[in-house]
Amino acid sequence: MPAADLAANFEPAVPALSVANVTHAFGERKALDDVSLTVPPGSFTALLGPNGAGKTTLFSLITRLYDNRSGAIQVLGFDVRRQPAAALSHLGVVFQARTLDLELSVIQNLLYHATLHGLGFNAGRRRAYEVLEQAGLADRAKDKVRNLSGGQMRRVEIARALMHRPRLLLLDEPTVGLDIGSRAALVAQVRALVADGIGVLWATHIIEEIVPGDHVIVLHRGRIRADDTYAGLIADTGAHDLSAAFLNLVDEHAGDQA
Amino acid sequence: MTLPVSAPPKPFRLPFAGYLICMAGICWREALRFLNQRGRFLSALVRPLVWLFIFAAGFRSVLGVSIIPPYETYVLYEVYVTPGLVAMIQLFNGLQSSLSMVYDREVGAMRILLVSPYPRWFLLVSKLTAGICVSLLQVYAFLVVAWFWEVELPPIGYIAVIPALILSGFMLGSMGLLMSSLFRQMENFASVMNFVIFPMFFASSALYPLWRVQESSLVLWWICTLNPFTYAVELIRFALYGQFDPLAATVVAGCAIVFLGASIVAYDPSAGVMSRRGGPEAAK
Asked: What is the CATH number of the domain that holds A38?
């Protein structure tokens, strides 16, 4: 597994993700305006922003659905535009839309993903059971995805994103449409990864998913409004909790770009 | 913010075996999906058989086909039309797999494909290869049934046709790929199927020899002569009789390269439609 070997050689100083001065526009509308952020390895960074803040555009650029035209994006020190293969092989991603093949079984979905990352069927099968075990879904391996609940599908998607041992995990509003129980299970599953040294970027607009100790980046209308620790954010805005701090930030700048 | 200076510019290369695994995986998924959709297989088989059993039988007495290469004797209309129907299977299959690309894009499965570290052109070629493998299955199923319908080809033809099918599959598949990059939604695409498949099929040498077309309309003959599908049909027709048609092979290979090149550009992250269409909607 090249990703794991290479990652082991890195100094811890290399951030899992670094985005520097990225601006991206669709026609006249600037979806991202001079965005810079860093996700250190082994950290949980929450990207907090209301709908339409530019989170999905940022994810599209990081996953190289299309190229950034300005600034630089690096995954573990690899520029996504200049060294896309290296960057993408260290990157795991859970998209906002469901991307499992409903007609195939859980294990078939995972194996397909394994091959896309150059992992053969035997190694892929072993790894698939490992990640399913972690996700608590090993007994559902042979079930068709269609028969899983929404929360289970999400957990399978996270397991799938971990198949190739990425060092950076991106999640784009993964808890949308889930009930409280499934949401908690999902958040717990991802938080456990941080201990393994994986850098997590968790995009959300749900404040309850963020806990003290997390790093919080607030994105609103394509611009970074705050980039701080949980406690720092509250202190800086003078609010009594994160929710108020967030509203404060989002409101304060509401007129900026209308 | 500045970038970390310690970013290591280590050389990174994907192992060659990984390419093979990746392509095998894409073909494997396509095969699984194909087996899961019995209806698709059945309709792929029934469609040409309807033409063979009903259309060809009805026209047998109306249309006489004189001796033209590669045929050495007078042939029944069923025999004449069989290569055209084989090409039709590939035409449908090529557009259907690109239809599945559009569908994949709508449901997001495409994004999983595109975050693979392998180069995008390679992923697209793999996807094409997967489609061609499926079309080979469909063609052979059809040829078996046709054999029982007394469309018996020389034994060598059943083998010689494989390279022809691969080449024409590449052309039709990459044409579909190119179209899939231009259309955002399935509704658009469905109408394109009607505007592309039927004109291409009818204005070709699939159903009638071109000299007959020339007799009735010179304009139509020109259209047929310029239609790349005609050359796919002829390539397959000659191959089914163990012969090689250099003109057809050249045209089909040339078109395949042009279509494939254009679709690689269309799917390229910096130049392609992805970035121009862009926006959060396309990104999901």
From this structure: 3.40.50.300
* pLDDT number for residue A198: 94
Q: For residue A29, what are the β-bridge partners?
A: A26
The crossing angle, in degrees rounded to 10, of helices B77-107 and B155-182 is 40
Please judge whether B29 and A67 are an interchain contact, meaning their C-beta atoms are less than 8 angstroms apart: no
A226 lies in a domain? yes
* pTM, full prediction: 0.85
Percent residues over pLDDT 90 in chain A: 55
- On whether any CB of chain A is under 8 Å from the CB of B112, the answer is yes
A97 Cα to chain B: minimum distance (Å): 6
* DSSP for residue A105: B
Give CA–CA dist A247/A234, Å, rounded: 11
> Hey, are the CB atoms on A65 and B7 less than 8 Å from each other?
no
Is residue A148 situated within a structural domain? no
Query: Taking CB atoms and an 8 Å cutoff, what residues of chain A touch B100?
Result: none
Inter-chain residue contact A10 with B279, CB threshold 8 Å: no
Residue A184 distance to chain B (closest CA, Å): 24
Q: Which residues from chain B sit within 8 angstroms of residue A14, using beta carbons?
A: 4, 6-8
CA distance B248 to chain A (A): 35
Euclidean distance between the first and the last CA atom of chain A, given in angstroms as a whole number: 48
Q: Over the stretch B60-91, which tens digit does the pLDDT of each residue have?
A: 776 666 778 888 888 888 889 999 999 999 99
Q: Indicate whether A84 belongs to any domain.
A: yes
> Structural domain of residue A246, as residue ranges?
2-90+166-252
Q: In this predicted model, what pLDDT tens digit does every residue of B108-148 receive, in sequence order?
A: 778 888 899 999 999 999 999 999 999 999 999 999 999 99
Give the pLDDT band (50/70/90) at residue B5.
very low
Q: Please count the structural domains in chain A.
A: 1
Q: Is the dihedral of CA B137, B143, B147, B148 positive or negative?
A: positive
Q: Please judge whether A67 and B280 are an interchain contact, meaning their C-beta atoms are less than 8 angstroms apart.
A: no
| Interior angle at CA A120, CA A118 and CA A121, nearest 5 | 140
Q: Is the pLDDT of residue B2 over 50?
A: no
Interacting residues of B58 by C-beta distance below 8 A, sequence separation 6+: none
CA pair distance B142, B177, nearest whole angstrom: 24
Residue A70 in contact with partner chain B when CB distance is under 8 A: no
ipTM summary value: 0.85
Per CB-CB distance under 8 Å, the chain A contacts of B111 are: 63, 65, 95, 97, 99
The answer to the question of residue A208 being in a domain is yes
Least Cα separation, residue B127 to chain A (angstroms) = 12
